[in-house]
Design goal:
The chain contains four helices and no strands. By secondary structure, the chain is mostly helical. 50% of the residues lie in helices and 0% in strands.
Length: 80
């Protein structure tokens, strides 16, 4: 039996990738960006300048994708 949060995450991932709920969830990379939780860490910087830009986050995902393919043979699909 999976955990409740895993089931919720699987459901969101399956919908995003158009995977039927009867199929297993394929490998994927997910980023949970909680700006509200971390905005007080920005100090004197404006929030829009404090967090990494989307292109940098995407580059990190691509590095993870390459590493997961090289080390584990997984090839998560890229959603843009």
């Amino acid at each position: 039996m999976g955990c409740k949060h895993g089931n919720i995450a699987d459901g969101h991932a399956q919908r995003a990738m158009n995977v039927p709920v009867t199929d297993p969830t394929p490998p994927y990379i997910s980023i949970h960006i909680r700006h509200g939780d971390f905005s007080q860490q920005c100090g004197e910087f404006p929030v829009d300048q404090c967090f990494a830009p989307c292109l940098l986050l995407r580059a990190g995902c691509l590095r993870c994708k390459r590493a997961s393919h090289t080390k584990k043979g997984l090839m998560p699909p890229m959603l843009s």
